[in-house]
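Good morning N.,

You mentioned wanting to compare the apo and holo forms, so I went ahead and generated the holo version with phenylalanine. This is what I fed in:
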Amino acid sequence: MSRQNSLIQTLQGLETEALAAIQAAPEGDALEALRISYLGRKEGRISGILRGLGDLSVEERPSVGAEANRVKEALQEALKAREAEVTSGADEAETSSEDLTLPARHRWRGGVHPVNQVIDDIWRIFQSMGFVRARGPEADTEWYNFLALNTPLDHPAADEQDTLYLKDSVLLRSHTSPVQVRTMEKHEPPIRILAPGMVYRRDSYDATHTPAFAQIEGLVVDEGITFVDLKATLAEFARRFWGEGAKVRFRPSFFPFTEPSAEVDVKRMITRKDGTRGESDWIEIMGAGMVDPNVLENVGYDAERYTGFAFGMGPARIAMLRYGVPDLRLFFQNDVRFLSQFSTGSPP
Ligand code: PHE
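and this is what came out, ligand included:
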């Protein structure tokens, strides 16, 4: 190859290489460094070739010179264009073209669901009394949901009319009481647990029923636990949750897994529409009782030595009371206009 052609080839190689480097340069300093390395008067590689033109023959000189100048101009052009690109980006960041007097854009932030707020508040009260959190599976067996809880399968609650069976003896738990059994199976007394979770029943979907709902189970087992402990614990809970003046009332009831059993009502201090303070009506809030000795024996406890109490409540009912919500379905529809009323988070 002639000297002339090989120089032209070198120039074109340098051009390709330089153009790519210029395009990739992130900012002004990098561009200046590239300018120096290709076009700098002393060390620039293109300038070097131009300087060496004198060594070429008169015939060779014009074509190499023309090519070198063309490449030099192309690179200068590319450097200028890239320079404009990188600096306009910087300008944008420094002096935004947006109107800075506009109010900040609203950002949606999720809130804690009102039923979960109630669960959290209830949990904090029992936690401060020494309870620990427990959980169990939502799909459970007849043993845990009924039999171990002293509930025969011919009990109306176990009927397919009421309970959602998945297959044979597997079902969607109809209450959180199976967590009692699972906890006692794994741990020796003393037991002090609170177990919130979803439960399922073959129920209608209307203002006061939903086929899926949350429950909170409580269980205490130790030596010497009596009904007095149950009453005192729930009375303290009511005062902490509804405030001073809240009272609980126990009405005799029946659950297969507690004996004796009670339905627990609460009366709380309320502010009426006219601003005066007074007592509310009694409202049923939970089922409770002393753990039936059969249940203790089913998990292998010595029922002569240990006694316990248990309770179960529905946080959605409590949330209805607390917030004056008239229809349970509102808790499931996830209408933001409803939910945002319970949101404590304001936009940042
Ligand atoms: N499991 C009962 C229910 O679902 C509530 C309950 C729990 C009652 C614990 C007594 C003791 O209605």
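The two ends are 71 Å apart (CA to CA).

Happy to go through it together on a call whenever suits you.

Best,
F.
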